[in-house]
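Aim 2 progress update. The chain analyzed this quarter is reproduced below.
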Amino acid sequence: MRGAGRAPTRPRPRYTDPVLPTLMEVEGVDAGALRRFVEFVLNPLSLAIVARGIDDGIFEALAAAPLGLAELAAELGAEPGSVGLEMTVELGRDLGLLALDGARDSARVGLSDLSRRFLTRGSPLRLLGLVDHYRRYLPAAASLPEALRLTPRAKRTMWRPGAEREEHRAYFAARQAYNESRRDYFRDTAYLLLRGHLRHGLGERRRLCDVGAGPGAFACLVKKCFPAIEAIAVDVSFGFDAYRERSEAMAAAEGVDVAFVGANALLDPLPEGVDVITLNRLISGVPRDGADAWIERAFAALAPGGVLAMVDMVMSGDPEHDHLVALVVAQWMAKDRYLIAREPPTDPNDDKHQWGWSPPWRGEELEARLRAHGFVDTFTRAADPPFTLVGGIRP
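Predicted structure tokens:
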């Protein structure tokens, strides 16, 4: 939901093989290890070391077996005795990403369980897309002091009622390059969202509609893990043929049947009679004067007994969890200020015009909104950081 930076020019990936994890793999994730890894990613210093290891190919080179430092240098095409490689290996070991077995001069370098699980392409639990997403914030880290002085209030007009349909379409057309550049992030982190949704009995539901679905990775994962669920992914970007076709290719590679609906959830009717509506990573970008519209439309589309569930970067009330959410919000502000200073917006459809400060939502605040619109049995539960689950039941 955050604003677009410059999209990368690397080739688009093609979906030919299944890459999403199974339900057993999702449920079996070590929550403590996952939290440690997310903390590495949200710290610019440790993230820089992780990114260097990825760029140099260290984690992939060690995926098959440990190597001596000289062997690793040769495998990577690095100069013998490379100081950069030695630094990355030493600091990687101290962070718990690498393991060294033996005396320093003759040690063999291997992967820790943490890096094998989250930093190798062959792992169904890889979070390489998460790393890629946050490493784009690295150049902006030093811009936070300036952001704290100069950031205006946000003007998120596309996430609340009032704009005309053509204005919406022009805005989202301008976002297509950015949306494409984030496919790996949405795909690799879909299982973090699913782990949050498992806390409200998702497996007992039969018809799910994921609103603001992005590329549809979450809907595909739900269908893969719970084949009996009818999964519907709703996103305005599915109205753009290239975007929808790549999402359909992902679903085909996973062997799942997902309905991709190109609709604007603020202007078009949602599928009716669904028993769970999910809003993932969406409400964090919705301004205070826009949230009621999303809640009202979800309530209208749900069948009696249906649940509206949001997994997003929301303050849960748990201080140990919420300080990581705060780090995410601070990075948003730093990145926005950095990009605005570097590339001031000139196109009227540039998302930068809408950037600014909007206080992070808090679970109790959203629960109050849900109850005001008729939801009962509302709940807020800290999930894997930086996500929080918030929701309620339509009576």
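The chain has 18 helices and ten strands. Confidence is low (pLDDT under 50) at residues 1-13. These observations will guide the mutagenesis experiments scheduled for the next reporting period.
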